[in-house]
Structure prediction request, 424 residues.
Amino acid sequence: MSTEAHRRFECFGGTATIHVRAASTTAGEKAVDLAQTRLLEAHRRLSRFSDESELTRLNDDPRWEVPATPLMRALADAVRRAGSRSGGLVDATLLDDIERAGYRESLDGEPSISLSEALASRAERAPGTPHPDRLWRSIGVDEAEATVIRRPGVKIDSGGIAKGLLADLLADQLREHQTYAVDCCGDIRIGGRAGQERRVRVDDPFGGGPVHELKLRDGAVATSGIGRRCWVAPDGGAGHHILDPASGEPAFTGIVQATALAPTALLAEVHAKAALLAGPKRADVWLPHGGVVIRDGGEVDVIAAEQPLTELAVTA
Amino acid sequence: MDPFEKTERKREARHRIRAQRERAGRLKARAVAISLICFALLWGVVFVEMATGNDPVLGDSSSTVAKGSSARNLRAAKAAPAEAEAEAEAVEEEFIEEEPAPVTTSQS
Prediction:
């Protein structure tokens, strides 16, 4: 029997890991090599922190319709679908707001302030609400012309949506292997012909050990939280990268981390972020396939699945 | 034959008959005693075999699947502890190799 090949590398401002067991150990190594190459190439194209990336050029382009590679078109389509599926809660067109909040360059490594300090610096708790303009609606894709269409000035933030999308795209390329797992910095897609269960540990946002363990044969899991990238905002309070779309300010909803299960990593990412923004009272509405919610005080709520992973959830 | 001789012969005849009866009685008693001893010895052997766990029904010469399985279990139970431990570790290692590596989901 072949052994599972593993690869761990820095990507998208975090750590990505790929696991593949193929017909032979050599074939597994080749598969993770190829997956790593594709992920790093995608990172190069979709980073908003590089002036040379395709995403930056698209965001700066004054035209309504901009020629784009298949990967960029897939991201644009994913941004529109994320907005649509979450009723506007997951809005990837808030790039100007997030830069105004203090997230102008890559924040790899330890946050400048701890999660506990960030929570203590902000007293108010309120759920997020959609931006009234819903700019994500203006984004479209013309596959025949190979272009992305959007109102000039509407900027796309790749963020978690790109990670979920790439986990799904790589999973499509690995699905013929016996087992695989693509972990794009927390957005994970799992599967394989062998149908074996894989354990998924849910990280503790306060720095302790895993708070929960899930088991997954074929599906995805993603986590969204405010603890990994915290900084001191211009007003002296804490800032982080999960914004309330309506206000454009970092969201303090009473939830510090939400983990969602879903059939695809993109959907899991959307559900996790929507659950976090919805706040403790309505988080479970966004977790139809189950998940784990951690509140400000460290309380862990395990949400049971109401739908199997094979059934796509329609929540709006 | 005078009356005295006649009486003497009758007395001798009765004496022989009594001797024959006595000999037949001794033979019967000896046969019963030997039978009882053989019966007791046989069941004594069976009792000892059963008491020490050597049930002849579960012996190696048995041809049924259940008996064979029991014999194997018996042999496995009698195997050296180190050997059994090594075998258990090998099975465990094989299982660990088969299980896909766990992953951790954290904030992206």
Notes: The first strand of chain A starts at residue 5 and ends at 11.
